[in-house]
Amino acid sequence: MKFLNICMISFVKLIMISLSLFLCSLYFMSNELVYFLEWEVVFINSSSIVMTFLFDWMCLLFMSFVLFIASLVIFYSMEYMSSDKSINRFILLVLMFVMSMMLLIISPNLISILLGWDGLGLVSYCLVIYFQNVKSYNAGMLTALSNRIGDVALLLAIAWMLNYGSWNYVFFIEVFKMSLEMKIIGGLVMLAAMTKSAQIPFSSWLPAAMAAPTPVSALVHSSTLVTAGVYLLIRFNILLSDTILGKFLLLISGLTMFMAGLGANYEFDLKKIIALSTLSQLGLMMSILSMGFYKLAFFHLLTHALFKALLFMCAGAIIHNMNNFQDIRYMGSLSTFMPLTSSCFNVANLALCGMPFLAGFYSKDLILEVVSLSYTNLLSFFLYFISTGLTVSYSFRLVYYTMTDSLNCSSLNMLNDEGWIMLKGMFGLLIMSIVGGSMLNWLMFSSVYMICLPNHLKLLTLFVCVLGGLIGYLLSMVSLYFYNKALNYYGMTYFLGSMWFMPYISTYGIINFPLNFGFMAIKSFDQGWSEYMGGQQLNSKLMMFSKLNQILQNNSLKIYFMTMVLWVMLLLNLLIFL
């Protein structure tokens, strides 16, 4: 009962704060206001510690969305985590996670950004290892160590900012954007954002972080941890447009988008498929951001947060009902047994694919049309559109395995839609996944984007989506058994399904050489000549002398007589010599 009270209080407070922030963002947007606040925390002998906060429409809108999703996740957790004895600790960790994200969003100062950034990293580690087993510990360590690279990059950026006498980058980032120091700072910030948003080659921690409870995954993959890197680059977007950094990020993010889309088509773990779709969408945000369209990246960030949180909540409800099975091959005909959950799941999937007039359509279609209109190279153009097709492909494959195929789970499973608390949480996001895209489109863009394209380019997005859906359906059919077998013959399935061997490079690749070197060192030194010349040699010599001493002390009469004779002879020799 106490736990329900804590959850309800947290839910009500967060939803009220979210609504207030949303109304404030509308006011700031309509009046084009920006508030920069300085709070003097400590003042001692002319030395002062000042906290700075930046409030504009962007940070207020983002905070309202984060708090809205967090409130529904906590409400959803009331039922999902009800059997957990340490549920209060879970809710407190989630609230700490959200507070760290709030601090990062409102900070125009690299020091306070680092506080929120490290808070996210630390609390995410605690949440990933929440179910205490070996797999969770390994995933948590991979997550923490991957993110430490970004933390070090931010610390170096803080050190380089000493050149300007202040860490409040908003004051001088536009003036000094062409200086060498600012370019180095931009590169370090970009490295930090790449680690937090899991771009190549730091992608392996994102599917590993699925060891966390599903409500945490809904929060992490929609609006908090992985979006922190994108949000940081939105703030530093001036350093990316028309620079070598932007071109490099465009290539890396395009490859990330493509790699994640391919990997999801060969994955069978429900949560990992959705995690890889997050990785693909992060690549889309980063790539459009690197081309200079930061508002479009922010627009897709918000719409993606809505349907991705819903997708994870539906996955959690399905896993909950399937007796903790996550393999999609054990599922099937869920639309018959869980119609309400299946409806939410399909709406979120269609929003992810860019189904017209759902949330994802407004941002994805706009991004692809802007790419078609922009001056970009052929490789990036193909990566954008092929990745979009792959998104539809793995979404349709997921629907085929979970909704339309025959039921493959245990016959004693009682599948139903009785989780009313979870369903209410999902319905809140369902409404936003339907109307959120159009609402944000009207609010964020004061003038309508007029994109005039030839017919074949205008219809290219639709064509790619239809083709991707068809391929996804065909890939799920048994008739392509020989196709998969042919790919297996060349090891391609293993390569594509394992994110281009990135998890192995991030784990075995890093630790293999030190472990081999340590084994050779212990074999050659500690157990080799060092042991032979040191401990073993000393031991054998001491044993030999002790055995000789033991023979001498055996109380043998002949030995005593012999020693007496030797002593007499020695004394006689000495006397003669003297």
Question: What labels would you give this structure?
Answer:
mainly alpha, two-stranded antiparallel sheet, 2 strands, 4% strand
Structure write-up:
The protein is mainly alpha-helical and 578 residues long. It has a domain at 508-577. It has helices at residues 2-31, 57-80, 87-105, 110-128, 134-160, 180-196, 205-208, 214-220, 225-235, 244-264, 270-290, 294-321, 334-337, 339-353, 359-373, 378-404, 420-444, 455-458, 460-475, 481-489, 492-497, 502-506, 508-552, 557-577, and strands at 34-44, 47-56. Strands 1-2 form a two-stranded antiparallel ribbon. A hairpin with a 2-residue loop joins β1 (34-44) and β2. α2 runs antiparallel to α3 (87-105) and α15 (359-373) runs parallel beside α17 (420-444). The longest helix is centred in the C-terminal third of the chain and has 45 residues, at 508-552. It is elongated. It starts with a helix and ends with a helix.
- Mean pLDDT comes to 84
- Helix % is over 70%
Q: N-to-C SSE series? A: HEEHHHHHHHHHHHHHHHHHHHHHHH
The strand count comes to 2
Low-confidence stretches: none
Structural class: mainly alpha
Tell me the β content. Answer: under 5%
Large-scale geometry: elongated
Cα gyration radius (Å) = 32 Å
Q: What about the largest sheet?
A: 2 strands, antiparallel
Distance between the termini: 106 Å
Identify the strand order in the major beta sheet: 1-2
Total of DSSP H or I helical runs spanning 4+ residues: 24
